[in-house]
Inverse folding.
């Protein structure tokens, strides 16, 4: 019997190997081609009505874009995200321009899929990613000033992992995820 916290054999090694590191190798570099591949992977994600409601702001250490993002990290994420080779700010197009009209009912959902693509692509390139929300959303929004209708959702730190998977990555069982929506569950 496999341990309930071990992935069942048969799922793809890229999925088994993925984890969110809390340490990155500060000497690692993601070159232009690498950045392009990560964005390309996101670009090919599915989206409702092919609405592609995602957008990104990227910066690597030493670049002005990185300098604009760094001051808005929360202390908890600055501890490790600063050493990542690439920071990606993720945005979704939630509304049509400055109206309250939804651009897509699935805008945030589709952004999540694009990021999932990006993280698997990163894994395939020998890189690790750590998504996070620990940053000053208001401050970063003021700094980047996205177009009306666009909202910053999250950030992703990408680089060479300098640690292994952390404690507390337990997953609920498949039985739970099949029953939780309909039973009282835990
Ligand atoms: C939308 C989102 C926001 C997250 N925010 C944070 C965060 O602010 N700080 C953090 O350390 N990790 C953050 N994480 C990472 C999760 O804690 C992590 O994915 C989860 O614990 C499972 O671990 P694993 O990715 O190693 O499997 C976030 C992940 C997602 C998808």
């Amino acid at each position: 019997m496999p341990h309930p916290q071990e992935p069942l054999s048969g799922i793809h090694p890229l999925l088994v190997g993925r984890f969110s590191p809390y340490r990155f190798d500060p000497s690692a570099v993601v070159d232009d081609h690498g950045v392009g591949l990560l964005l390309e992977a996101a670009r090919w994600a599915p989206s409702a009505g092919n609405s592609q409601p995602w957008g990104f702001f990227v910066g690597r250490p030493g670049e002005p874009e990185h300098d604009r993002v760094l001051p808005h990290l929360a202390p908890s994420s600055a501890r490790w995200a600063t050493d990542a080779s690439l920071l990606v700010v993720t945005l979704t197009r939630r509304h049509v321009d400055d109206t309250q009209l939804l651009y897509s009912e699935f805008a945030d959902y589709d952004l999540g899929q694009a990021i999932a693509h990006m993280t698997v692509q990163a894994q395939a390139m020998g890189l690790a990613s750590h998504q996070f929300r620990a940053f000053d959303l208001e401050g970063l929004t003021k700094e980047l000033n996205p177009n009306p209708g666009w909202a910053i959702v999250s950030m992703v730190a990408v680089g060479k992992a300098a640690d292994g998977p952390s404690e507390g990555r337990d997953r609920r069982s498949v039985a739970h995820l099949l029953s939780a929506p309909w039973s009282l569950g835990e």
Q: What stands out?
A: The pocket of flavin mononucleotide is lined by residues 19-20, 77, 131-134, 154, 165, 169 (CB under 6 Å).
